[in-house]
Structure formats: C-alpha cells, structure tokens
UniProtKB/TrEMBL annotation:
InterPro entries: GIY-YIG_endonuc, GIY-YIG_endonuc_sf, GIY-YIG_UvrC_Cho, RuvA_2-like, UVR_dom, UVR_dom_sf, UvrABC_protein_C, UvrC. Residues 12-91 form the GIY-YIG domain. It is found in: Cytoplasm. One of its GO terms (molecular function) is excinuclease ABC activity. This is UvrABC system protein C. It comes from the Bacteria. Pfam families: GIY-YIG (PF01541), HHH_5 (PF14520), UVR (PF02151), UvrC_RNaseH (PF22920), UvrC_RNaseH_dom (PF08459). One of its GO terms (biological process) is SOS response. Residues 253-471 form the UvrC family homology region profile domain. One of its GO terms (cellular component) is cytoplasm. Keywords: Cytoplasm, DNA damage, DNA excision, DNA repair, Excision nuclease, SOS response.
Length: 593
C-alpha cells in the first residue's frame, strides 16, 4: 500500500503511530487522540516546523499504527515502544543512560553496586544521580559503614569455601563467605543502608552516637573512635540531604526555564521530608516539551512520590496520574500550588533551571562562535553542526586500532563513539588503517547517525588524502582536515586543501580543536590499552597449564594487568578465578613474584 493511501485510511481513534524510513527502521513513535488528524499535521505547513522535524518528515517512507481504547493506553504504549526501538527522532531524555543508580542486588547476602540500567530483576534501585563521583563515594562509604560484602561470589554455592578476602581482615566486611553469618543478621545491615539512601539517616546517626558514648563511658576509647569515624563518614552523606519538611512527605517538585531553542527542567526529589537529589535536563524546546518530559520521565522511574508539584496546569495531568497508577499500581497527585512552602520550592526549582539554562547558553554561544569562525577559516559553504574525529593507535605495529569521536550540536555525543579493530592487515600502516576505518564507517551508515559536516583526522596530509580517497570512492563529498601536533605533542594547526591553516590566532577555534583532538586521543589510547592488556594476558597465561578461557577472563577482569596480578597474593588469585592452589602457584612462578 502506498504511503498516501495509508494516510487516507488512518482511523480517527486514539492510538500510536510508528514512522519508518526506507530501510524499515523505526525513526519516530508518537501518540494521538485522533490518529488521522495528528499524522496529517506532519505533512501540512511543514515550513512552520523545527528543522529536525522537517528532516524527519522527508525520511518517512512507511507508517504503522496501533489503535487503543483511550489516550492513557496510547500514552503507555508509546512509552513502551520508545523504550523498545529508541527511535532516532524521539530525542527527549535520550541521554538518560548517562545517569547512575545505586542498586541493592537481589541475591543471598545482597551487594551495593552502581549501575546505569534499571531492570526488573527484583533488586532495589535508588536514583538517578547526576554526579557519578558522588554515587561511587556514597556506595563506598555505605559498604564500609555497614560492612557489606564487595565480592562477586555466588551463594550458597560458594558459602564456606575458600578464605575470606582482605576486607574481612581489616574489618570492612563481615566475611559472610565463611558461612557463620546469618542472612537475617546481614539483612539488618542492608536495611540500615536503605534507610540512609531513603533520607532516614538521622536515625542511624542517633544510634551510633548512643553506642559511641557507651564505649567512651566504659573506657573503650578505640571502639569509640571507630564509631566517631563512621559518624563522620555518614554525616558526609546526610549533609547533602537538606531538610525541607518536619514530616515525612514525599514530593517531586518540577519547574523549568526556556528560551527560543532550549528548555532546562529541574526536578527536586524530596523523600521523607528531605531534599535528597536534584536532576537537571536541558532539551530542545517545543511548545509541548514540558508535558512530553513528564510523560516520559514517569514512564520509567525508580522512586515515586505521593505528589508531583508543577508550575502550571497542563492538559494531560489526569492522564499522567492514570498512567502512573496503571504502570505501578500507585496513586500520585499532580498539583499546582499558588502559595506557601510548595510554591517556594517551585521558585527554588525555577531558579536552578534558569542557572542551568544560562550555563548551557554561555557554552552554546562559545561553541557557535568557534564553529562559525572555523567555517570561515576553512572557507566551507555549509554550517558545521557535526564533526567526526578519527585516530589510529598502535605500538610498533602491534594491536592496531582506530577510534571515532563525535562532536555534535555543541557536545561530545558518546552515543556515536565507535571502536575499530584493524582487521585487513598486520603490522604498522596508518594510511591503510585510516582507509579501513573510514570504509567501515561510511558503508554502515545506519549505525552512525547523520553524515558529518567536517571530518578531522589526527595526522597530516597523508592521512587526509587517505580519507578523501575513501570518501570519493564511496560517493561522499565531505571536507577533511588533519590535526597537526607540535614537537611536544600539543595541537598546533590544521591541514586543509593541501595547506597548513593557522588556528592559534583564533583562541576559540584553537580551544575547540584542542578539546576534540585530546578527546580523540584519550579514547584511542584507552581502547588500545584494553586490547593490549587482553593480548598480554593471552600470551602469558596461555602458556600455563590449568588456565583456560574462563579462568583467564576472570583473572583479566579482576586484576586488569600483569603488574597487578604480580602484586596479588596466591590466596587472592585462587579466590579471583576459583582455581586450585597449585595452579595459582604456577602463575606466580611464570610472571615473577
């Protein structure tokens, strides 16, 4: 059926529409109260649409739809399909994977770990948290405070087998692996960590203070000092949780600030009367972005409040309440306060959003000016919105790898970073490596996003020529420049159209190119080290009888390098790979003590 016929046959019912490109890939999912009217809007007055929407419309080659009974069902179905397909043009919240959660695992003797993915695995999750450093710090403090295990042993299979690790001997772990700690005793410690993460850490502080004073009164000063140290650590976490209410109410306070291109949305997360977290999102602004944000945010959230506080009434508030109840079996009220404490919290969120937007705008202005200047320096016709930067890394021709870093819309877009192991030949040949990497990238278009406006190669004219040869052969006309370094391996100039283009007299351009070159180099070196470490393990460990692929992988994941393995004790090696003592002894003899 032709696309035009599908449009004309669309029902007027509520439902979800699914846009596809010429290869059948889902590029957009949307919901509608009236499918026919909503889809028709995409093909009328297209000049009034944002550029990205116009681009999407040009790519639509097929359309599917699913009819639902009402708008709430359409909303839920839309959220599920977006999670399933992650369509290119459903850009709202696409960077949510960058936020971290604290996870309490669902296993015998649970562990505290960090994760970027929330799964329906029976574990408990807290977050999301914007600062990865704060998450890691909090997890380490809680594990130390409550002596929770850090090992990955599988219980009950490994219970009572092997020796406890160093953490047990320095009293940072109960040593549940010995088999003499009950699940009930351990679970009580886990629940204490849960209290801290839930904003109820004050109870734990009072308990510890009472115990500290008891030790001091009984002249047990070392024990009292241990408790005091734990209190200091615990209070470092709790001081980040600002008391908002005297009672234990739970709310999400959400406000925004917007300009003509972006909207900054701030979520203040209040649990048990305390402000325990703040989330910020800066998104491309459309007239309904705030409402769409609320729909997607609450379609996959770990911790729900009793009340969602927003700055103004929105049309889909009832649908959001119904969606949450249907998805989670939990009733939440969406409210718009006009005065009082809740209005003051809205003002706080608004102020934070304005600061976030202003910071984003300052950065955007700098990058926009730098990109415009770079365009003029190189004499390019088109605006520079996306830059792809390539680097080749090896040591004396060994472990050849190539990497791709993407700078897009004023940001490093890690979604489209790529790693390439050079497969076409052995030995060192940067030119052939560049050709292989560019060929693989531009013959596999669907995995790399839109075509770049400029390609940067970490190297000189020979590397540039190699890239241009590949692009011309494949039918692409994309400007390519080489990033040249000085004798101290610092960014110097660009090579373009056979000439060296000075950039140091343009500070913003220089800083931009320097940042891209450093990020490209960092990513390449990191990947090369990963490959080199793996090969080093393979070359040495393959020579040891009793070390197969599984044990080799366990050792690699635990120690990461031969040097670390050399420093490890025989007991640590036995525990890491679950291997016999005599095999661990062979390893130590092979690599040197």
């Amino acid at each position: 059926m032709l696309l035009e016929e599908k449009f004309s046959n669309l029902p007027t019912s509520p439902g979800v529409y699914i846009m596809k490109d010429e290869n059948g890939n889902v590029i957009y999912v949307g919901k509608a109260v009236n499918l026919k009217n909503r889809v028709r809007q995409y093909f009328q007055n297209s000049q009034d649409m944002p550029p990205k929407t116009r681009l999407m419309v040009r790519k639509i080659k097929d359309l599917d739809y699913i009819v639902t009974d009402n708008e709430v069902e359409a909303l839920i179905l839309e959220c599920n399909l977006i999670k399933e397909y992650r369509p290119k043009y459903n850009v709202l919240l696409r960077d949510d994977k960058n936020y971290q959660y604290i996870k309490i695992t669902n296993e015998m003797f649970p562990r505290l770990v960090t994760t970027r993915k929330v799964e329906k695995d029976g574990s408990r999750y807290f977050g999301p948290y914007v600062s990865g450093y704060s998450v890691k710090q909090t997890v380490e403090l809680l594990k130390s405070l409550f002596m929770l295990r850090t090992c990955k042993k599988k219980f009950p299979d490994q219970l009572g087998k092997g020796r406890p690790c160093l953490n047990f001997h320095i009293e940072k772990c109960l040593g549940v692996c010995k088999g003499d700690v009950s699940e009930e005793e351990y679970q009580k410690l886990v629940e204490r960590a849960v209290k801290v993460l839930s904003g109820k850490g004050d109870e734990i502080v009072e308990e510890l203070k009472t115990k500290m004073f008891e030790y001091a009164e009984n002249l047990m000063f070392e024990k009292a000092q241990e408790i005091k140290n734990k209190l200091s650590s615990l209070e470092r976490i709790i001081t980040k949780q600002k008391v908002i209410y005297a009672d234990d109410r739970s709310e999400d306070v959400i406000n925004f600030a917007k300009d003509h291109t972006h909207i900054a949305i701030v979520v203040l997360i209040i649990r048990n009367g305390k402000l325990i977290n703040k989330e910020e999102f800066v998104l491309k602004a459309d007239e309904d972005t705030f409402e769409r944000f609320l729909e997607q945010y609450y379609s996959d959230v770990v911790s729900l409040p009793n009340e969602i506080i927003i700055p103004h009434r929105i049309e889909n508030a009832d649908n959001i309440e119904k969606m949450i109840e249907k998805l989670y079996g939990f009733k939440v009220k969406v409210t718009v306060p006009k005065q009082g404490e809740k209005k003051q919290l809205l003002d706080m969120a608004k102020k934070n959003a304005e600061i976030s937007l202003a910071n984003r705008q300052r950065v955007d202005d700098v990058y926009a000016e730098a990109l415009l200047t770079l365009k003029n320096i190189l004499g390019l016709e088109n605006e520079i919105e996306k830059i792809e930067s390539y680097d080749i890394s090896n040591i004396a021709g060994a472990d050849n790898v190539g990497t791709l870093v993407v700078f897009e819309d004023g940001r490093f877009n890690k979604e489209f970073y790529r790693k390439f192991k050079i497969k076409g030949f052995e030995g060192q040949d940067d030119i052939r490596s560049v050709k292989e990497v560019l060929t693989r990238r531009f013959t596999n278009l669907e995995k790399h996003g839109r075509i770049p406006d400029l390609i940067l190669i970490d190297g000189g004219q020979n590397q540039v020529n190699a890239a241009l040869e590949v692009l011309n052969t494949l039918g692409f006309s994309i400007p390519v420049a080489g990033m040249v370094k000085d004798d101290r391996h610092k960014t110097r100039d660009l090579i373009y159209n056979g000439k060296e283009v000075g950039i140091q007299e343009y500070p913003l351009v220089y800083k931009l190119i320097y940042a891209i070159q450093e990020e490209t180099h960092r990513f390449a070196v990191k990947f090369h080290r990963e490959v080199r470490k793996k090969h080093l393990y393979e070359s040495i460990l393959d020579e040891i009888e009793g070390i197969g692929e599984k044990r080799k992988l366990k050792l690699f994941r635990t120690f990461g390098s031969i040097d670390n393995l050399r420093k490890a004790s025989i007991e640590e090696i036995v525990k890491a790979a679950d291997i016999p003592y005599e095999v661990a002894l062979k390893i130590k003899e092979k690599i040197g003590v």
